[in-house]
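Allow me, if you will, to draw on your knowledge of protein folds for a short while. I have a record of one protein: its chain in single-letter code and its fold written as discrete structure tokens. Could you please explain, in whatever detail you think fit, how the structure tokens follow from the sequence? The record follows directly beneath this note:
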Amino acid sequence: VVTYDSMSNTLLVSDLRMTCKYQNPAPNPKAPTSIKLLGHTFSVLESAWDFTNDISVGQQVALLFTVDGQVAAILPSSNNQIRSTALGMVTGETTANLFLPNGSTLELTGADSKLKYLNQVCTLSASDEDTLNASRFSGRRANGDFDPDAMTVGQYAVAPGVRVYEQFRDGAQVSIPLSSLTFGPIPQDQIKAVHMNSSDIVDVIVFDDVTGDAYTYGMMIRTTTTITEPGDGQTGEDEKNVVTWRLENRNTIKINEHSGYAGKNRSFAGIALNEKGYILASLELTEIARVSPADFFEQDGRYYVTAQGRTYAVADQVECYKEGTESWFDQENGRDRMNACLAFSSDLTLYIDPVGNKVRIIVAN
């Protein structure tokens, strides 16, 4: 779909299409101005009326979108002849954020859905008005390194609005800002997958454990519970100690009770979980004590700290802990948490991750 922007004298091209049933056209099926689908009312352009004589309500179709998510055409989509190209991030059992070509997202809600692949980029489609489907995103292998300065992957160009994610094995995919990739090209073998649009431009990149952002950071807390089980008939009842773990920062992260952890109780760590709450991997953090608020500085919109003769970037979602009160700074924004922590104490301890070498936790002593 090509639209013309008269303000910038630019042609805007979109290859976004999503398969669904043709339902809820208003005011009528032949000249609709809107279609209600997955909790959203999509605007329909007059260009779509050129195709409505070939379709009927209840038929499987493909909606072709403009860059900002308006329906420009409606095509029959029988026998998988026209497949969905819609990509989005699954955010819940019934919700996903659809990626629009203009860089924004649109929340879709399927009340009758039971989506898998939480926090994963998936291909999206709809089998009914309230049924959202998500299939695992199958990208291609990168054919070279990703150079954030040149905006290339191998010989292919990267879209200015490329969406970059990081993942450890089949854990959650975490969004990575381009501005944080200041350490040179990402090697080909550390790129899990890329997606290319119809112009062979890379618009989605998934890293394989490059920056450390795929882990959740906080304090690991052990709980031991004694349970009583029936004995063997001779000894009566048996008592058994069951150990469970949780990770605490400003939130509490539940860990599957059958997932083991070999670290110390109340130690700061990073963990990567899969969709079922099992620990896929854990990181032991490096401790640097006796750091002053004066050691922190801002450069190009990002915060850094110099400690023991080395400079570290502060993670965008840094967690901050009050040692004396055993509580966490609870501001929603990582920068706000850091500023509150630096104002609270002049004696700080840093915890650095070994993957991205970023400050993940700041402790106010």
Remarks:
- The first strand starts at residue 2 and ends at 5.
- DSSP finds one helix and 31 strands in the chain.
- The longest helix spans residues 334-344.
- The mean pLDDT is 92.
